Amino acid sequence: MAAHIVIKYPGLPREGESGYMVLLLQDALRNRRLAPDLGTLVVNGYFGPQTAAAVVDFQEWMLLRCSPGKVDATTWVMLGLSLPEDGGLEQRVQRFIEHVGRRYNIAVGKTGSFRRPDDAQLWHICHMFLYNRFNGFLPQAVRDAQRKSAKAEVSLGRTIPWEHMSKPGTDWADGGEWGWLQVLRTKDRQTPPELNDAENGWEPGREPDEEATRERARSILAAAGIGPGPDGTPHSGQVAPGYDGCREPCLCGNRASRHTLGKAADLSNLKELANRLTAEGIGTLDECLACFGLWRPLVDLRNAAEFWHVEEIPLAAMPRLHCGQTGC
Questions:
Q1: What is the mean pLDDT of the chain?
Q2: How would you classify the pairing of strands 309-312 and 110-111?
Q3: pLDDT, tens only, 135-180
Q4: In terms of DSSP H, where are the helices of the chain?
Q5: Is residue 133 a contact partner of residue 236, using CB atoms and an 8 Å limit?
Q6: Residue 209, class by beta-carbon neighbours within 10 Å (0-12 exposed, 13-18 middle, 19+ buried)?
Q7: Beta carbons of 86 and 243 less than 8 angstroms apart
């Protein structure tokens, strides 16, 4: 049986307290089954007399020298609840998935824990051409036009203008796997001839077509499994660039995706888990995630919330986010 993860000993729980951290303690006690009575412990998230007695039974069975019934650091470690603070994202996510599957029979899926920078850049360009869910970031072509005319944002919107995407000579031909060859399409859904330079322009009759290119961009985002946007539009969730500052034809100035550093993952079925936790009345989804050293930094973004995106809890925030209960 795999141990649960709580990133560091939180100094609790104590009798009379409740919350998801207590639930993990009870779950660990019950599944250890070292003492005969531990298997009957009720896992309800409340540290009452039965849980206190189970702690004493476990400590006596393990010959632990500590105050009977007090969950000290030694007891915490012996229950398999601790992990070194340098435990990485993959380990935290895997233990979270194991716990949710075993306790709630919910299969949480994981995608996007690592993205190649070229892939992230390709998806970002497609997103910024079609949607741009980012607050505070505009393509360079839009910002340049704004400086020339106060009405430019109304005429150009917030996405990469087609005039710039399809302009011969736009310096993204050396973009490798995220270059224009991957995105631009002619009216007959073919790759435009490689005459992408300012002097010669496109070959007549084989120029990039806007609708065909939009169709291609949508298919790229769909194949990548990008989640829906806040309005429910499929595959329109925001995707950060693969490189700091972004690249042509966008150049929005945004930072590189945390996925390219292996510091973020997208998890499925979190809403189902949140509903189960609400019905159970023990804790919230964020309290549960925090017990495994995870948090959702994008869940409250205006117009671009990502319910499924998780990252490691920064060490500086660990005490505040451990479980959301008094004494953490």
A1: 81
A2: unpaired
A3: 889 999 999 988 887 655 555 689 999 999 998 877 775 555 677 8
A4: 20-32, 49-61, 73-78, 89-104, 117-130, 140-148, 152-156, 162-165, 180-183, 210-224, 270-280, 285-291, 318-321
A5: yes
A6: buried
A7: no
CA angle 159, 164, 168 (to 5 degrees): 155
Strands lying side by side in the sheet with 264-267: 110-111, 264-267, 309-312, 294-295
User: DSSP readout, 52-78?
Assistant: HHHHHHHHHHTT--S-TT---HHHHHH
Is residue 84's pLDDT more than 50?
A: yes
Check residue 325 and give its pLDDT: 35
- The SS3 assignment for 327 reads coil
Indicate if the pLDDT at residue 297 is higher than 60.
Answer: yes
What's the rounded Cα separation, in Å, for the pair 166 and 31? 61
Domain residue spans of the chain: 20-111+262-321, 117-260
- Using a pLDDT cut of 70, give the percent of the chain over it: 80
Q: Which two tokens stand for residue 110?
A: 């994981």
pTM, entire model: 0.68
What is the Cα–Cα distance from 99 to 105, expressed in whole angstroms? 9
Tokens of 61: 């069975």
What is the rounded CA–CA span in Å between residue 243 and residue 263?
15
Rg (CA), the chain: 26
Burial 116-146 (b: 16+ CB within 10 A, else e): ebbbbbbbbbbbbbbbbbbeebbbbbbbebe
- pLDDT of residue 131 exceeding 70, the answer is yes
298 vs 276, residue with greater confidence: 276
